[in-house]
Amino acid sequence: MAEQSGDKTYDATPHRRQQAREKGQVAYSQDLGSAALLVAAALILTGLGPRVADTAARMLRRQLGDVGHLRSTPEGMMHQLVEIGGAVGLALLPIFGLLMLSAVAASAFQTGLLFVPNRLAPDLSRLSLLQGLKRIVSLQGFMRLGFGLFKVAVVSAVSAVVVVLRSEEILNAGALSIGGLAVLTGEVAVQALLWVGVALLVLALADFAFQKWKHEQDLKMTHQEVKEEMKNLQGDPQVIARRRQVQRQLALNRMGQEVPKADVVVTNPTELAVALRYDAEKMAAPIVVAKGAGVVAQRIRRLALESNVPIVERKPLAQLLYKEVSINHPVPDKSYAAVAEVLAYVYQLKGKKPPKPPRAA
């Protein structure tokens, strides 16, 4: 009933997934990237922040500690600003580099290595006011709004907890020096940043799981879509079935012509059947003219019985020839002795002179 109504009940095929990925349609949560970047920033500041602060303090002491050292000319002041900026920038470079790596890692975690240049092309349809209003005034839009308000509440609660935990130090901050007050402010800010980032990261992981589930639902296919994709990739199923039927009929016709000409049929005893023919004057070794398993093996046996072709049961030999020898190919060297024994037995039954043994290749 679901298939008739066109419901999407089939999981996406690998081809459909690849097409969606090439269009940039992947499970992605913007909140996860932002939260991961926030946590990374807090950890980086915890590790490298004191170094940057120390560098900035030393530079200020050097530039402002000695009034006589100050330069009053515009060129001198510009030189001092460049010197200060270069030193601080060099100290901040590792922080910015690690933040960039963190952003790339957060994106790669969600989508892998994905490059979609066509997404960079301008799309004027995205500037439609009506489409924008539809996105805002929709169930998904209201869900995003509710989730955003919930995140604001979480950020406020976590920040309040950090302030309460450090309340004693904050209340006694009046007795601290300017340097001590700056250190306390930095520690509280970084701690709040870390806790808020962790809370948002947990929410973002939940959002990413939801986005992944929604992406899977959007990729699902109807029965008709699956059929159309199979037709496009492999051809019309009816044509394929007809082609296989013709190939099967040709194989049966060839079998009907070759089995009556065979010298012997080796069986296993009923599961496998291999027809052999050997002409010592023209062939270096016996060749397999037909082989089959199951129903095909039964047909080979029936043709052999109708044509008075001897049937000999040799299980190991039948298994070896069926697995390793293709039709119209000679038997392998390691089976020469066993095949020669079978042929000698067959010629003995017919009262004929045994054939010459197969020649080694």
Tags for this model:
2 domains, elongated, 4 strands, mainly alpha, 361 residues, name from scop
Q: Poorly predicted ranges (pLDDT <50, ≥5 residues)?
A: 1-5
- Quick one: biggest sheet? 4 strands, mixed
Number of continuous helical runs: 13
- What fraction strand? 5-15%
What order do the strands of the largest sheet run in, or round the barrel if closed? 3-2-1-4
**How confident overall, as mean pLDDT?**
79
Structural class: mainly alpha
Silhouette: elongated
**Total count of strands:** 4
Percent helix among the residues?
55-70%
Radius of gyration: 40 Å
Q: State the distance separating the first and last CA atoms.
A: 63 Å
Order of helices and strands: HHHHHHHHHHEEEHEHH
Number of domains: 2
Keywords: Bacterial flagellum biogenesis, Bacterial flagellum protein export, Cell membrane, Cell projection, Cilium, Flagellum, Membrane, Protein transport, Transmembrane, Transmembrane helix, Transport
InterPro entries: FlhB, T3SS_substrate_exporter, T3SS_substrate_exporter_C
Region (Disordered): 1-25
Pfam families: Bac_export_2
Outline the structure in words:
With 361 residues, this protein is mainly α. It has two domains: 211 residues, no CATH class; 111 residues, name from scop (3-Layer(aba) Sandwich), CATH 3.40.1690.10. Helix content is 66%, strand content 6%. The protein contains 13 helices and four strands. The chain has a four-stranded mixed beta sheet, sandwiched between helices. Helix 3 runs antiparallel to helix 8. The chain is elongated and about 120 Å long. The N terminus is likely disordered. Belongs to the type III secretion exporter family. This is Flagellar biosynthetic protein FlhB. It is found in: Cell membrane. Required for formation of the rod structure in the basal body of the flagellar apparatus. Together with FliI and FliH, may constitute the export apparatus of flagellin. Its main location: membrane.
